Amino acid sequence: MTLAKASExxxxxxxxxxxDDGVRTFPDREYLLKCRPAxxxxxxxxxxxxxxxxxxxxxxxxxxxxxxxxxxxWYHNRLLFFVFLPITFFLEVAYNTxxxxxxxxxxxxxxxxxxxxxQVIREKGxxxxxxxxxxxxxxxxxxxxxxxxxxxxxxxxxxxEDWPPGxxx
Length: 169
Prior knowledge:
This protein has 169 residues and is an alpha+beta fold. The protein has 7 helices and 7 strands, in the order βββαβαββααβααα.
């Protein structure tokens, strides 16, 4: 098993990534190589699958840290976070730093576009159902947009209507 650094892989952007927390999009390499410290510290990126616009697929097997982790602040303590919720929310937003990472990837068998569309529907279907009942014209219109997407780039555009790209959320 040979692992390649994400910074060195010749991706055909944009990418779609699936991991435990849902689906993410990566319009370019910069979004892939930065994340919030908690994602790195909790190993949440390990196992994430990436698919590029050429339908090539990789799995994240490890993550190299390229910049130092920020120091823990007093408001990172969960008890203090809830006691001082209004001010800690401001501090978290104002001082939330991104760290630089370089995931190590294992290349997997490529997917076909229909499999990628099915994964997008599995991820987004329950979210759409929260707003529009299954079978409603609005729900069916969202499904049709995914089914009619000609490539991964079009799917990324659809996903970015609801989620910001990369690990910004």
